């Protein structure tokens, strides 16, 4: 037999199990009712549900493609669209999404509203550790707390859990009657075991809904999760393997500014490669024309009905950008922290990066623009910290760099050596920042301020503040202070305060 014939024969004799298949996952998360394109990362006109739907529909037209969502489709109070139209978009994704994770904001309007939303969708909503009185998962598909989708002969298992942060954020009265949370790690372990041993899936995918650090911890504790589609933290993270695990992770930021696209490559039913990344939903991506027309109609009606939300607060000569919120000093965070610091009469002010969900555009800034960037209502909290306690607080913030728990700040500056803050300095006189700063003295007492969520809810910070003296929740409203600053034209992100290096 000649060589070409021998090669052909050997190929024909290869077992069918050696066939290579690729399954593509296209994912969205943390939409938060941002139907209309918005200002993001220093650029107007980003995202929008019409663009995302067009991309998802085109992707679903290709073979072996699944659409998934990490949840948080609603957001009570901000934007106004959510309060007026609720989950009007859920059925728009019928035939596009194959499965969705429950997000904390999906329960913002209570259990009855959530059930109406769920009834409008043909795709299942999952959460393995929200259980009923019988101890079984409340959200089930054919009695199971997961779904298996088979495409091209490959079986992919999907599940979701509510992380510790999500469980804290959902109000008890908004939960379905008789339900309760169980431990996310234990629930995940049971689901992965079932998917691997009973369902014999070829890959396991976690959709959400928990913080990035909880995703990492879960991946280390529970083996067998191939991919985590990051959610909840609003992080923009390209595809990579989580440290100390074999689990791939990516996260597409927020509000449909990006979608995730992951390609799982199988040979003989075994996952042998993962690739992909984030897809930016900017002006280069086409909109679905019917969806765009419907969004435009609904938005015009909304502006007419709620004109106070579209009132102009002030004008910016240049944008206050949100770049660097979780890794350094973002312009919008520095500006807000300084306005709050001055109002509190504090040496230093700290605000979780999670307090900010975007920047502010140049030109006219409306109430809706403002609330889209800084959506959460808080009161200012003041406390007295020793210099040593202030140093510990700064070190805590730096330990959370890269996450939503990192702090934007004003009144302090320092340098980093091996990831640790050194040469910490603080304002000499809170009332006169132009006087400059001085080294922090461990035994001295400093007036430090923050937002009440960070003071009394955020993990690590609330424990640190419990050691402080004279902790007081003031009547100073964070939104009111910033809105007044915009009206008065106080919009310089520096405002004379020292910048951290």
Characterise the protein shown here.
By secondary structure, the chain is an alpha/beta fold. The protein folds into two domains: 18-297, Purple Acid Phosphatase, chain A, domain 2; 311-488, 5'-Nucleotidase, C-terminal domain (5'-nucleotidase,  domain 2), CATH 3.90.780.10. It contains 14 helices and 26 strands. The protein has helices at residues 3-12, 49-60, 80-85, 111-119, 164-169, 184-197, 212-221, 289-305, 331-344, 367-373, 387-399, 452-456, 461-465, 478-488, and strands at 20-28, 38-40, 43-46, 65-69, 99-101, 125-131, 137-139, 147-151, 154-159, 180-181, 203-206, 227-229, 236-241, 248-252, 258-267, 270-280, 312-316, 348-352, 363-366, 379-386, 407-410, 412-417, 420-427, 437-439, 445-451, 469-477. Strands 1, 4, 5, 6, 7, 10, 15 and 16 form an eight-stranded mixed beta sheet that branches. Strands 8-9-11-12-14-13 form a six-stranded mixed beta sheet, with helices on one face. A hairpin with a 2-residue loop joins strand 15 (258-267) and strand 16. Helix 2 (49-60) packs antiparallel against helix 8 and helix 9 (331-344) packs across helix 14.
